[in-house]
Amino acid sequence: MSFSTGIPQKPYMKRLVIISVALLIMPLAFSQTIKVIKKENRIKGSTASGYSLQLDGKQDEVETALNKFLKDYGKTRSTSDYVSVSGPSLGGIIYEGNVLYATTEGSATQYRVWIGLDTTEWRGRDTRKILNQIENMVYQFGVKFYRDRVQKEIDESQRAFDATEKQKTRLVNQNKDLNIRLGNNDQERIHLEKALEANKQEHTALLQKIENNKKAQDSVATAGVQIKKVMDSQKEKQRKIN
Fold first, then answer.
1. Does a structural domain hold residue 57?
2. Which of 44, 133, 141, 236 is a good FRET partner for 156, with 20 to 30 A between their CA atoms?
3. How confident is the model at residue 18 (pLDDT cuts 50, 70, 90)?
């Protein structure tokens, strides 16, 4: 039995780190086919009927997801060979006293999940109907497994996007601050240029005043010499009067 969900597989992402921001390049997505097959399994030495699904994932990832998924269906207990679900809830009915079994197996990158039941333990139950529900249960697990994986990638992308938005806001605010500082700097430059021009004019005026003062000093000194000569002449004239 095959279902096409349109769920994207794990994307290939390239992360560009700039100072404090990780920029996430958008991944390419393609459809993921959930293929559930009917399969028998050995449980406690007996042949059990059920359905199997192969997933692209590592052991710890698949087993963690499966254990979490099974808890929604009943009370779980893990052994070295399988996980049992006591009193499973299927199709809105709780099957008290009955048990479902789940196993996993696979390689480093692909793992197979199986869920089923031992029909000898379900006497008096419509096992055909229950197996149909198990088939849908396995399919739903496959859908949830890939959707949860993509959700983690979406969350990571969201965090990267939020980081870029935060960085963008910081840079916009920094740009505003820099423009204000630039405006203040321009005003200060204009003020300093005017002050420098005034200083130059004052400097030129002071040099001229110094030059004028020197000439005035020379004129006064010359006049003083002439006056002293006159005064000496007058004193000599006075001295000769008898």
1. yes
2. 141
3. very low
Q: Which amino acid is at 22?
A: A
Counted domains in the chain? 1
- Give residue-wise pLDDT tens across range 143-157: 999 999 999 999 999
Beta bridge partners of 53: 36, 113
Is residue 175, in this structure, part of any structural domain at all? Answer: no
Q: Does residue 179 surpass a pLDDT of 70? A: yes
Q: Which residue from 67, 149, 151 is spatially nearest to 104, judged by alpha carbons?
A: 67
Distance CA 177, CA 58 (A): 50
| pTM value surpassing 0.70 | no
Other CB atoms within 10 A of residue 219 CB:
10
Q: Which domain holds residue 100?
A: 2-156
Tell me, rounded to whole angstroms, the distance of Cα 99 from its chain centroid. 45
Let me know if residue 142 belongs to a domain: yes
Tens digit of each residue's pLDDT (9 = 90 or more) over 48-63: 999 999 999 888 999 9
Residue 88, class by beta-carbon neighbours within 10 Å (0-12 exposed, 13-18 middle, 19+ buried)? buried
